[in-house]
Amino acid sequence: MNLPAASLAEQINGLLGGDNHVYFVNSGSEANEAGFKIARQYMKQEYPGEFRYKTIGRYWSYHGTTLGTLAAGGMGERKSKFEPLSGNEFVHVAPPYCYRCPFGLTYPSCGLACAKNLETTILGEGPETVAEVIVEPIMSGVGVAVPPDEYLPEVARICQKYGLLLHVDEVINGFGRTGKMFGHQHWDLTPDIVSIAKGISSAYLPIAATAVKNHVFQSFYGEPSENRQVAQVNTYGGHPAAAAVALRNIEILLEEKLVERSAETGRYLMDGLRTLMHHPWVGDVRGKGLLAGVELVRSRETKEPVGSRQIQSVMDFCRENGLIVGRSGGGQRYSNTITLSPPLVITRGEIDRIVETLNRAIAEIPAAL
Ligand SMILES: Cc1ncc(COP(=O)(O)O)c(C=O)c1O
Question: 54, 219, 265, 338 — which has fewest CB within 10 A?
Fold first, then answer.
């Protein structure tokens, strides 16, 4: 332990509403891996007669690049070359991706079929075999899927009902990206495990963390002979230089009120992006704060995605005109959403430029590709 890391842990604990313990690692993938291990060991120690080891995630989610996090994620094309990745310890349910509802339903008459799918899966697997549910509050990889407002509270309720830990992946959502310090705070959740990375240091130096609630942490207290501690070591986790940078980064976020600014300029960004709906190519515009997606389709009626070369033409046009945009990671078929996550210090004038550049890029999509 070192002073910057201890201060950073205290800072993060406060931002998460208190009652947390923070374990430092170097990347978002490691933060999630540590969360999986903590969940499994917690269940072994707290439910000694049961065998709760499974992690339930959502299809189309991304949780990292290690074998465990790839298995937890739901992006077939990113993991198929490395499979088989695991036994049956990572299970998947349908994502709350309303524009392409996996059940073909429409919110709110859907009755939150995606949350019901979670409960059905827990029951089908056997709740006594499940340790945790991992969710990214706003799913970024699928092209920024903002869930209906009742969805995450319902997921939390289901976790509580079956004694599962709720593990929230804040690697992208965290530190103001969505207009709150953490994405889950839009829905007043109190997750048991939170994975954080990227925005913790604005990526100036590598640092990430897994925060757990005190009731989870308490499980690992004991005499050395009891072997209750988490057997997890990490050489560089909480490196003092990285921790000092993260601390200063968070101070700047707070001093310059960048979280509030993200919410405010995010609304301006969304208003601007919605004007792009005049192009028939634009099927959906969605987002929260400064995390946004513009889904491009060949036809609004059929929602058939634009082709890979069409979306590439938009990205190339943008790049040639000084704007870097991303695209969703839905494999061959569903990488058709332009994703945006501009710096939290972005100005309204710069947002105008983003919208204007995208407007020209979409106007020039070649119809024939
Ligand atoms: C939601 C989410 N979780 C985890 C990760 C993995 O983080 P890292 O690349 O730092 O391992 C990412 C990376 O993009 C991510 O988007």
Answer: 219
C-alpha 118/C-alpha 164 separation (Å) is 12
CA 29 to ligand 1: nearest atom: 11
Which distant-in-sequence residues (6+ apart) come within 8 Å of 187 by Cβ? 137, 149, 152, 153
At 18-57, the pLDDT tens digits run 999 999 999 999 999 999 999 999 999 999 989 999 999 9
CA atoms 16, 22, 28, 30: torsion sign: negative
Q: Give me ligand 1 centre to Cα 9, in Å.
A: 20
Ligand 1 neighbours by CB, cut-off 6 Å: 27-29, 32, 62-65, 136, 140, 169, 171-172, 197
Helix or strand or coil: residue 69? helix
Verdict on whether the full-model pTM lies above 0.90:
yes
Cα 171 from Cα 31, distance rounded (Å):
9
Tell me if 28 sits within 8 A of 198, measured CB to CB. Answer: yes
Q: Tell me the CA–centroid distance for residue 300 and ligand 1, in Å.
A: 31
